[in-house]
Amino acid sequence: MVDWTHERHAAAAVTRIERMARTVEGADFSTPVPTCPGWDLRQLVLHTGAVHRWAASMVRDLASERLDRTAIEAGFADLPSEELAAWLHKGAGLLDEALTAHDAGAPMWAWGGDRHVRFWSRRQLHETVVHHADAALALGEAPGIAEDVAIDGVEEFLDVLPYARRWRPEVRELAGDGETISWRTGSGAAWLITLGPEGFAYERSAARATATLHTDTAAELLLVVWRRGELERHRLEGETKLLRWWADHSMI
Q1: Most buried among 65, 98, 168, 232, using CB within 10 Å?
Q2: Per residue in 122-151, pLDDT tens?
Q3: Average pLDDT over residues 192-209
Q4: What residue spans in the chain does CATH classification 1.20.120.450 cover?
Q5: Is residue 2's pLDDT more than 90?
Q6: Residue 198 near residue 175 (C-beta atoms within 8 A)
């Protein structure tokens, strides 16, 4: 099992950005992105590259408050499509320079619970993994997500999900009276989510649950939890309506 550190997350983020840039190089940027309804490939790449630059700016300055991302996005709105892949690739270097300039534990603003530089290396890895999957699927290619990356990505999703309630009120409803949801993968990784009165908690466990979702790989599970894969294409057991309810309320 991979020992994920800030340095490893940062390196993996750079690699994934470079892979995404290669995926979109020479593509038709008017291609619709089905997993991001209303977006085409150009909008997807502009958003992703702007997020990298936004995060790099905050990490570089160890920002104590959120910077305005929309201003960064607006600055590249007129970028010619033939330059988009190279522009996205350049963002990898900018992000890497910022992330590796500081200690993992340096305090700074973050929208999740871990308000340190290390939040951003992990978040930018999985931000890019998901949006690379968006691009690949739009172009008819396989996302190609390694199992170790996907396993960490599933847990990162569960770690940040409670903090999304600030812009997704439905997340506040992810509570219950002890109901449990199991996510199990053919590669052996498994999680147990328990819904309590104050919210949900999770642990690595293959224990029996109220409802269970089975996927062949953690990569497939990662796509499902980020709503890039269809729940119904996988094996569901128990009170399946609970799995659908979770999917509807955990969309961020």
Answers
A1: 98
A2: 999 999 999 999 999 999 999 999 999 999
A3: 97
A4: 6-144
A5: no
A6: yes
Q: Which fold has domain 153-249?
A: Nonspecific Lipid-transfer Protein; Chain A (3.30.1050)
What are 150's two structure tokens? 């996907």
pLDDT by residue (tens digit) across 70-91? 989 899 999 999 999 999 999 9
